[in-house]
Design a protein that fits this description.
287 residues, mainly alpha, three-stranded antiparallel β-sheet, 14 helices, 53% helix, globular, disordered N terminus
Amino acid sequence: LRTFEILGNLYHHFPLPNINKTTMKLAISAALVGSASAWSTLTMKAQTPNSRRDILQKGAAIATTIAAPAAANAYAVPDLLYPFEALEPYIDAPTMKIHHDKHHATYVANINKATEGKDEVDILDLQLNALEAGPGVRNSGGGHYNHAFFWDEMSPPDEAKKTKPSAELEAAIDKAFGSFDDMKAKFEAQAAPGAVFGSGWVWVCSSSDGLKIVGTPNQDNPLMKGVTDEVMYPILGLDVWEHAYYLKYQNRRPEYVSNWWNVVNWDKVSENYAYVTEKKAGVPVRG
């Protein structure tokens, strides 16, 4: 208990810039459940004048050791909210597994490498100045954010068909595009190979002038300053890289886009719209 108390006050005695409250909790836990030898090292000098300093220094060492791997792996691939096969028949299980476990994982590994040794920044906050930060942050940081956003806006077809745009989102869609069907038609046109040539994404975004549909190349997104005319906040996004559909659809991207509507969770899209409307900020993602 004495060690717990001392470690709990570690911030006040040994301020470390990369240690937050979560890390401190881990450090305390490590101290309490560590090996017998570690415990003995911390307690054997209890009767010496410098014992408090010794314990604090050892506690700081534990915290620093724990903090180092956390900083090196700041980002992680979030688990899907549904099984790989859940989006069948519109998106096949092999595509989902490779897309999630391989492609997304590669972006995460690379953004962790690109930011290793730097202060941890939420992946959402990393988007704004991604172009200035360079290709590592732009491509891998964008890839991580975009995919984490993408997974959570989808759900199994039986569930997706029970969802619908909120009254507020429906009104915004009607105002910007004329109708829900007109919005879908414009989105599909933007997702066509001639509109987004090669690899990229298509988004419905909240802008200073209402909802807009835009396409972005590679792993860029409208949250990044300089990608579109203004920074905009996505509420819906579709991956049109070939790895997102090629196993099932080969070169038939329009068919993939048309079928994708069957797995869009409009309740989640409505939540996204409500969030960006209130916060004037991008939607946070898991991972």
